[in-house]
Amino acid sequence: MSPNGESRLRARGLTAGYGGTEILHGIDTDIPAGRITALIGPNGCGKSTLLSCFSTLLPYRGGVLLDDRDLRSVPRRERARLLALLPQQPTAPDGLTVAQLVARGRHPHQTWWSQWSTRDEAEVGRALETTGVPDLADRTLDQLSGGQRQRVWIAMTLAQDTPTLLLDEPTTYLDLAHSIDVLSLVRRLCDEEGKTIVMVLHDLNLAVRYADHLLVMGEGRIAATGTPDEVMDADLLRNVFGLEARVVPDPVTGGPMIVPELA
Ligand code: ADP
Ligand code: MG
After folding, report:
1. pLDDT, tens only, 152-170
2. 259 - beta bridge partners?
3. Which GO terms describe its biological process (predicted)?
4. What is the bridge-based pairing of β-strands 83-86 and 164-168?
5. Does any ligand 1 atom lie closer than 6 A to the CB of residue 41?
6. Domains along the chain?
7. Which atom of ligand 1 is nearest to the CA of 51?
């Protein structure tokens, strides 16, 4: 919970899966408002599945509350103005330009009487600037490097201009310098615009550095929640990730830093 006790997203007894296979087994958790939550856990533990439930892409049992409302009772367009998801493997039709893709983020804000406003134009421009890709606006997606494409997808998610962002591995395809760029951007969106962010991160050291709140999952259950200082230790790494590692003070931040033992 954030210091003022606000929670933007809550899961209560959240259970979901694919076909007959249950993946999430009754998740209870609160996502603090106006903070960065890093969702971490080993491959296949259900992180993307949880984000799919939070964005109602996947049916679930139990409850998800968004600003104290049952998520399923919020009309789809309104939901898309409140919450944006950047999936782990987003797809777009062939031949779309960067500008056209980012403009798609504005769909939930458009109406039949006002299809494309100066506000939409401004938000698309702002999203392209913020992610550092305005020069790419007229290129098609297949003319981009993996890193450029990832930034363009983030721009589309930002153009949706929602108070809550769900980012599934936003630093995929990015080298360390570009990863830091994106995470610093996420930090700014949180600090300056008060956005609530949930992001799945693979790199545990980046997760503990950039998150205010850690949500650690193991095999479809919550293994731990709290600040990185509270949560990250050698026992957690061993029990949840099967990793032998030391947790030492980060020489830059003083927070926890994970140093794996030699195998
Ligand atoms: P994570 O994001 O933590 O790596 P996922 O949520 O993607 O994990 O996957 C959790 C489990 O659900 C895995 O066992 C995966 O194989 C399975 N799974 C994910 N997506 C599907 C799907 N569309 N159909 C069937 N099983 C799936
Ligand atoms: Mg995933």
Report:
1. 999 999 999 999 999 999 9
2. 246
3. iron ion transport
4. parallel
5. yes
6. 7-94+162-260 (3.40.50.300)
7. 6
